């Protein structure tokens, strides 16, 4: 739960920033970058986890640098956050990008002739007008992060009380023959996801504020 | 006042290539550019406002050079002090009438608060008789109220010139005559120069001290 919340929060900032940048970027490279960012959605999570392990492990490029500062994200809950963030990133980025592209360019033109600078236009016009789409994307990303299993297992392992997430805990419970524990966790996960989907559906484009 | 515009611009899209090559100068306070849709009226007006950067040329309003391609002068739209009335008004749908009108009065990262007010905005709300709807959202307004809100928003920012893009196309034809009259009187009271672009000859008759006709991206001088 903590892992999913962190992953969603990080993605909210990162995904929205990237989405706004991409929605304003007119270049042939855009499609390539867009495709690369969608990769986590289609790649098997274990492949992602492996990439992360190679990259962030003590012998990896980034890992060696982090190790130098005494940080090692492998087999920690922060590692699980990184894995969940990466896996859920496209959910927010796609939703936010679609929302930004739906904002009529005339509104930003109006803000410009009224004397506003770029950052002010973003916070006062683009972001509020895209907020419903972004929120819907964030909820889906939260659900995705909650269900993240493969990449988390690869990088963070499954240590009860330390790096265990809801998904990995269910797996562990079933493996150990603890059916009661597994049932409880499955019900919790299912209810959370249904609630999240219900809220996301309410916020989906097409339903305007009265 | 004086307006001098001499610009060339090539706009290309998937379906067509359009060449704009317009040059005009006037000392009149009310200029109407008249022509069919697709003639380059909006491109010309957007160039003056700084929303479009022409390939070549210069734009001088009241002796202030807004754009000059040779010298690399291109004052950003936010500093041109042009009041622009968009064809469909472009009122911010997430803000109330009062917040829309106060929008250009505050330059910060946050929108004007729902309850606040400033003197200039209050004055324009009174001029346009919008007191009853200050807390309404644009979607709740009539066509005439929307136009008045958009005008108030443009004027509250303290422009040097008003640029109007098809000011009456989004309102009921029955209302147009009265709104034309209102706008004409308002312009006379404010003594603010304006450029109106339109495809409606009635607008040209009612609002133009000087009327230019534009066709296929070129100005055709003379009477309409």
Low-confidence stretches of chain A: 206-210
- Please tally the β strands of chain A and state the result: 0
Q: Biggest interface pair, residues each?
A: A-B, 19 and 28 residues
Overall, the morphology of chain B is globular
Would you list the SSEs of chain B in sequence order as H and E? Answer: EEEHEEEEHHHEHEHEE
Strand content of chain A: under 5%
Oligomer: heterodimer
Amino-to-carboxy terminus distance of chain B: 23 Å
Rg of chain B is 18 Å
Query: What is the tally of helical segments of chain B?
Result: 6
**Which structural class best describes the helix and strand composition of chain B?**
alpha/beta
Order of helices and strands of chain A: HHHHHHHHHH
Would you mind describing this structure in some detail?
The complex is a heterodimer of chains A (210) and B (224). With 210 residues, chain A is an all-alpha fold. In chain A, 78% of the residues lie in helices and 0% in strands. Chain A has helices at 2-24, 29-42, 45-56, 61-68, 77-102, 105-113, 118-146, 150-156, 166-175, 179-203. The model of chain A is unreliable at 206-210 (pLDDT under 50). By secondary structure, chain B is of the alpha/beta class. Chain B is 28% helix and 27% strand. Chain B has helices at 41-49, 97-102, 119-127, 143-156, 173-190, 201-207, and strands at residues 3-12, 17-26, 30-34, 56-61, 64-68, 73-74, 82-85, 161-165, 194-198, 210-215, 218-220. In chain B, helix 3 (119-127) runs antiparallel to helix 4. Chain B is globular, with a radius of gyration of 18 Å. Chain B starts with a strand and ends with a strand. The mean pLDDT of chain B is 89. Chains A and B meet through helix 6 and helix 7 of A and strand 7 of B.
């Amino acid at each position: 739960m903590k892992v999913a919340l962190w992953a969603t929060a990080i993605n909210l900032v990162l995904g929205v920033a990237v989405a706004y940048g991409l929605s304003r970027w007119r270049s042939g490279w855009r499609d390539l970058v867009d495709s690369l960012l969608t990769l986590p959605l289609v790649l098997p999570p274990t492949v992602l986890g492996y990439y992360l392990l190679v990259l962030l492990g003590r012998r990896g490029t980034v890992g060696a640098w982090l190790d130098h500062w005494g940080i090692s994200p492998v087999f920690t809950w922060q590692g699980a956050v990184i894995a969940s963030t990466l896996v859920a990133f496209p959910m927010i980025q796609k939703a936010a990008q679609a929302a930004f592209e739906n904002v009529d360019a005339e509104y930003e033109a109006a803000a410009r002739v009224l004397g506003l600078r770029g950052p002010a236009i973003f916070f006062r016009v683009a972001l509020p007008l895209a907020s419903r789409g972004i929120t819907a994307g964030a909820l889906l990303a939260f659900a995705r992060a909650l269900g993240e299993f493969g990449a988390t297992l690869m990088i963070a392992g499954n240590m009860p009380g330390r790096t265990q997430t809801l998904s990995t805990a269910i797996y562990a419970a079933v493996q150990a023959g603890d059916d009661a524990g597994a049932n409880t966790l499955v019900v919790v996960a299912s209810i959370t996801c249904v609630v999240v989907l219900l809220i996301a559906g309410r916020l989906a484009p097409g339903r305007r504020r009265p | 006042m004086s307006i001098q515009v001499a610009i060339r611009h090539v706009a290309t899209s998937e379906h067509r290539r359009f060449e704009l090559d317009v040059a005009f100068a006037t000392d009149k306070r009310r200029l109407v550019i008249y022509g069919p849709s697709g003639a380059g009226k909006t491109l010309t007006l957007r160039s003056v406002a700084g929303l479009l950067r022409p390939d070549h040329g210069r734009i001088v309003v009241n002796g202030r050079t807004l754009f000059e391609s040779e010298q690399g002068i291109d004052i950003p739209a936010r500093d041109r002090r042009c009041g622009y009335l968009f064809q469909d008004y472009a009122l911010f749908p997430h803000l109330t009438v009062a917040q829309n009108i106060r929008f250009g009065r505050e330059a910060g990262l946050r929108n004007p608060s729902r309850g606040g007010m400033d003197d200039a905005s209050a004055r324009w709300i009174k001029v346009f008789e919008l007191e009853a709807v200050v807390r309404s959202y644009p979607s709740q307004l009539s066509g005439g109220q929307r136009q008045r809100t958009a005008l108030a928003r443009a004027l509250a920012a303290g422009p040097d010139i008003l640029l109007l893009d098809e000011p009456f196309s989004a309102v009921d034809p029955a209302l147009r005559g009265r709104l034309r009259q209102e706008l004409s009187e308002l312009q006379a009271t404010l003594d603010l120069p304006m450029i109106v672009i339109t495809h409606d000859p009635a607008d040209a008759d009612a609002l133009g001290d000087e009327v230019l006709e534009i066709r296929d991206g070129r100005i055709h001088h003379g009477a309409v």
